[in-house]
Amino acid sequence: MATLPLFEADLFEERSLFDHRFDQTIYLLGTLGLLERPVQVTDLKNAVAERYEIVFDFSAYAGQSIELRNDQQANGIGTDAEYDDTDKVMKFVVSGTAVVDPSVVPAALRTVPYPASSTGIDHHFRFHRSRGEWLINGVGFKDVANRILANVPRGKVEIWELENSSGKWTHPVHMHLVAFKLLSRRNGPARARGGRDFIEPYEAIGLKDVVWLAKNEVVLVEAHYAPWNGLYMFHCHNLIHEDNDMMAAFNVTQLQNLGYNETTDFSDPLDPRWTARPFSQADFAAREGPFAAQAIGERVQQVAREQPYSELPQVEQALEQAWANGTPQKRHVEKYKSNGMVHGARHRRFVV
Predict the structure, then answer these.
(1) Which of 184, 170, 212 is nearest to 45 (CA)?
(2) Which of 81, 122, 142, 177 is most buried, taking the most CB atoms under 10 A from its CB?
């Protein structure tokens, strides 16, 4: 048996993988980490930026060649334009010489660390096209004043509803920072049917950070917005859509009474350590000044001494204590303007 990582590149093909001629069972083991248990499939729905770990048993195909194929329409789910030969992924040339392979696929893989259960829908995000632009809730990423679409208190579990109302297009939605649990998938309004109304078996027993939002589909995802605060993106991972503005941000806001004084906080985009600095084109061309080898080495050492994100156990403990009273909505968080921007820059003392 062989373990194969499968991932999708960043253009636009959505796929149903594997050549059905062999009708061979594939064991799907994981996506964002291992699943609860293996899932046996004969094909796999895979969108841009989704990753899967599979096990395939080649023992029955000694001396043969097997092709990994892309079912371009994925049984009607894939609707994006295809080009010549995008149905061809790779070929396996199986040796005619047998090997001893005692490996087995275990019945259970791990206890998945799902986010704590929540109720209700905290945010609704519509992925759509308007006047030639790819938008989320009517906002594109170039709209700096309005592109922060959610402020989430650090450590909170939220349920987000993601809706595809862009017509014939599909969107693999990627959320930064978090791993989410896919709760449900349904068709959109009756006048715009065409999507799935179920979760794939391998989506139901593991965590993800990309979900394929096919034509007219609506999904619910549940995530724990922790451990770090700061600004993070969520976007369509089809680069044509992403590069044309189908990207927004969410702000994981710091709890004022967290009870732990971090020394490795990198959440402030205006922190003078990381902001752009003026430079001389002559220095750049000659590799002098800040571009000299010694200067670059010193800068790398400075970053290393910061020990970014080295306080994870302490941060997780502080967050657990901060939310332990069961009334997270009552906790005071930093105040934000209506457009989602911070009232003034927030700086802290840092230890170097």
Answers:
(1) 212
(2) 177
Selected from 1.10.10.10, 1.20.1250.20, 1.10.1270.20, 2.60.40.420, the CATH number assigned to the domain covering 2-93 reads 2.60.40.420
DSSP 242-258: HTTT-EEEEEEEPBTT-
One DSSP character per residue, 135-168 reads EETTB-TT-TTT-EEEEEETT-EEEEEEEE-STT
CA distance 161 to 144: 23
CATH 2.60.40.420 maps onto the chain at: 2-93, 123-258
Cβ-Cβ contacts under 8 Å for 270 (sequence gap 6 or more): 345, 347
346 alpha carbon, distance to own chain's centre: 27
What residue type is assigned to position 256 of the chain?
Q
- 225 in the Ramachandran plot: left (φ > 0), alpha (ψ -120 to 50) or beta? beta
Homologous superfamily assigned to 123-258: Cupredoxins -  blue copper proteins (2.60.40.420)
Phi and psi at residue 285, in whole multiples of 5°? -65, -35
